[in-house]
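Collaborator request, handled under Task 6.
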Amino acid sequence: MIQQLSLFPYLETQASTRPPDFIPVYTPVLNGREEKYVLDAVRSGWISSLGSYVTRFEEAFARFCGVRHAVSVSNGTVAIHLALHALGIGPGDEVIVPSLTFVATANAVHYTGATPVFADVDPVTWCLDPADVRRRITPRTRAILPVHLYGHPAPMPELQALADEHELLLIEDAAEAHGAAIGGRRVGGWGRIATFSFYANKIITTGEGGMVTTDDDALAARCRLLRDHAMPPHRRYWHDEVGFNYRMTNLQAAVGVAQMERIDSFIRRKREIAARYRKELAGMAGVTFAAEQPGYTNVYWMVSVLVAAPYALSRDELIPALRARGIDSRPFFHPLDTLPPYLSATPRPVALHLSRCGLNLPSSPALTDAQVAYVCQVMRELAG
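Structure tokens returned to the collaborator:
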């Protein structure tokens, strides 16, 4: 039977002072209809990229994002690459991306032959700073690629205005922000095209997998063509151009359909967990929580904090101290312009500061209130 990958043995009624078994940063919740749907797909014989669950998953995800089209792919990185390629971005072009994000965002730009240009992030939202984006625009700039970092939406209205002013494409990397919204309008429907990841630690998962969303009929059709070796549906084994094998399997999509049935409850639970952390750690000197700007809905893919003086430990000292007490955590991403493939002589200062202080605490919707209380208790004890 498919279950949660980690079922904690102690009960909600037990004291939070009792150390739990190891609490991972993230545990996928797979105890809905995932087993039923995967078994149905296996018994049907449709286990590769053809099958009813692929269509069902795409239709459900498009409805969720409020767009006309969702195109499933094999992972979140190829979703970005497919979106960029479908838009015609290639050698000689520049794409502005945030310095603070996972490396896949820049890598996908690099795959096209274009150049990722790194802009700094806002010190409050941690997402792409429109003012710094403006400074990075050159005659070679073709697109802006904001990331909804750790679940908080990037400032899409401002970035859209900037893109319109300079006739640039706006592409969303929403890998970490399923269901996040601005003014009630969900991410995935703001830019010309958007991309998502369904890796095991994302808000919903298919194990591996990704999605491209758009309201552009022609762009959606092009993504569908390119993801399947650029083979037109009306002429098998004919290829007018080089395409990709970026398809999602029916087995993965079966898991995705089951996950979509509970995505709203996952998001509610994640927001409850973030609120509980915030309440339990309120007033702790040296610990700053992620923001939720007015009108924005943060889905808290990760419950993220900044750890700095006067907290007793540095971020890098806190990580092993938590682990010794049975609590996993993760540092923020390294700024991309500090990595060897993209090294810059002048790393973006806000991204660099956040990277040095940022910490992601256990954030799975599988967390119990008692586990959250235990993490917070240990944080308080380690504060001295």
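The cover message to the collaborator said: "The chain has a mean pLDDT of 94. The chain has two domains: 34-260, 263-382. Please let us know whether this matches your experimental observations."
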